[in-house]
Batch of 2 targets.
Target 1
Amino acid sequence: MKFIRGPSGRFLCCVTLRALFATVYLVKRLLAGINPWLPVFAFVTVFHITRGATSDAVFFALATCLMIADWKRLIPGRMPERRNLGKVLVWSVIVGASLVLYATNRGSWPNIVVLLVILFFALWLAYYRDHGPKPSLTKTMNRTKWVWMTLALAMAVSELFAYIFANVNQDDHTFPTISVLVSPLLLNPVARIIFLTLWSLIGVGLLGVWRKKPGGAAK
Amino acid sequence: MTIPVFEYLAVLVLSLVAWLLPRFRPNFLARVGDLVERIMHNRNTRLAVILVWWWLGWHFFTV
């Protein structure tokens, strides 16, 4: 620690500390208001690039760009209010999408078009103005949050370890991922319809399009 | 039954229990709908959740 003794040493220390504080300040300014999921999506993009899954990597890269655009307010137009949709319209979309998936082969261009339409529709519904902070967390809600987070994490870790062991041992049968288990089922058109309906209903539940607005009834 | 399949089934069964339990013990666990409503309150999380949900569908229907 001899080098920090004397006037030049103290000067050097002072300059280093100021540079450090300035860097921290600049990084904080640069990252202010960042979507906390953005680094996660960027990491997942890199993960998919590493494992050679091009379409997944492209999707997560685009999703990361969308989050950056939302964070930096690059999306033009005014932020809309929350949209609610009628049950007839939502069920029509689900039935229409199911019919297309039933009538066409898995991975064919009509499948891709239907899924892309659903993506734009879902983003259109999810992109609306936030109103105030979250209500305070009750003890029951806190417990519920931790229970579901633990279950989701357990599923993710199981899937990750199955993926790693399957790759290391070159054995999909002993260490199947969820994709390996579900993919053969989806070759059957009826199974595709059931899966699509469940998946769509989960999406409807997440988007809350039938949920009652505060102070108003859902359509 | 292999170990991963047992793990997936265990998580599925526990999820079903966590989904049904609030109907009988509402003070112990909140309904999934209420939790989802809370999670989807902020646009940041809303966008992330919807993108992941859609990707799961894309992954299973096209890949």
Note: The longest helix of chain B spans residues 3-24.
Target 2
Amino acid sequence: MSIHARFFLDRGDFTLDVDLEIPGRGVTALFGRSGSGKTTVLRCLAGLERIREARLTFNGETWQDDTQWLPVHKRPLGYVFQEASLFPHLRVRDNLLYGFKRLAPEQRRLELDEVANLLGLADLLARYPDELSGGQRQRVSIGRALLTSPRLLLMDEPMASLDVTSKGEILPYLERLRDELSIPVVYVSHSIEEVARLADHMVLMENGRALAQGPLQTLLTRTDLPLAHSEQASAVIQGTVAAHHADDHLTELAFSGGRLLVSQQDRPIGAPLRVRILARDVSVALNRPDSSSVLNPIPVRITQISDDPHPGHVILNLVVGDYQLLARISARSRRQLDLSPGQSVWAMVKGVAVA
Amino acid sequence: MLGISDSDLTALWITLKLAVISTSILMVLSAPLAWWLAHTRWRGKVMIEALVAMPLVLPPTVMGFYLLVLLGPRGAVGGFLEDIGVGHLAFTFTGLVIGSMIYSLPFVVQPLQNAFAATGGRVLETAATLRASPLDRFLTVVLPLARRGILTAAVLSFAHTLGEFGMILMIGGNIPGQTQVASIAIYDHVEAMDYASAHALSLLLVVLAFLLLMSVYGLNRRFKVVGVA
């Protein structure tokens, strides 16, 4: 189960040359700046863009090669555009059912009611698109794509045109989709927060090329890639809710490397929880600190120390359980503590963002 | 009735019949042309656009004259039709329909082209990702969204045909009961100094035109008014 895509396009001022292996499950983020070719790749996957030198197979079926071409409307995919692009002449209900009606009954795996509940659309069905807020419109467009029971969901920065409030409104729905639907999602984004929150797998795009592709965790912490050196450099830890400490308004997360305290989360014990830890929020100490306000001291081992583009800083790769953390500390501290790879230290995690 | 003679009523009937038939055929034939003009990137498109707009600037008599020559018994089209036994088209109702269609062509193509141009792009791509075939997309997305342009085109063509004079006189002659339309009948009354009949028929046309337009626009309001995305 996977998608193999090879696209080549030379438009003079822009060259696209990618060879992608996208897993057949989970969320794959196409991440990069605007102009890096993310959207073009997505459009090629959908068949909205037809470039001549291309080869695309989906779970072994050929969608495009030198002799074959499957037109967009015959591909079992859902596509969510940056702007909701609802049909203005149809009510929400008819927008949602547009693709659904065009499926043979035996291909329908989702029903209107389910999708309306999943995305909180039940009260909006009789409205016209111009009577909806931006966030509502985008939810309808996601629902409309889902109702075609796609075997692949493509999303082109579905939150880029939304304000902060609407984004906050959509994100939980996207997380539910990720957790409850078993179809692969390819998600274009230029926001690392979004990617860290949603993606499992990542393709890093730059100037029409795939700079790297692999599991999110790995790419975030690879110091040979630009991500680990950005201001937003971070690592992601996936665990489950282990306990709630209501008095302190804290929730305890269990993961392969131990436990972490995060701000209180309204999720049941055992529920999956993903947190993001910024490199700049991690400092290190040689001994377990007994007198510190830091909530989360974690025993870790240094695996790598690399220079940062900022000459006063170094980046530490720290391993804990199956996970890596990044710590950005000053070069001076590194010298004074005499840190070196292989050494065991305590990571002092100042802030944990629930992703 | 109101001093309107039977021959006037016949002329009115022929006028309405002509407007309905030529508008209907013209709408169907213009749609693909307008679609193509709205979406082609071919550079020669301006030439076609200019040709389509020609009836706007040419005097109707000029077009009528050429059509008469073309469709008459010795014209290229008329002669051919004579040869195959159909008969030429000068001074016939069919000739009138053809003339009216050419005369109204820009009034139909231009609104359709504008409406189609505004309906391209994103909504069509969206429909394609929702499993709609090209024809399906045209019928369920383009046509509903272009509804105002379509209505405008039909109303303009219809109204234009009602008021046609010079071309019809040329190509149709003025045969009562066959090719005599209301506008020409009015002219005849005025020529004969029969102002009372001219008044009656004119007033009837005014009222008819007003009622027609009002009902069309009234109908349009009842639908959901949507901007073309």
Note: Chain B has one domain: 6-222.
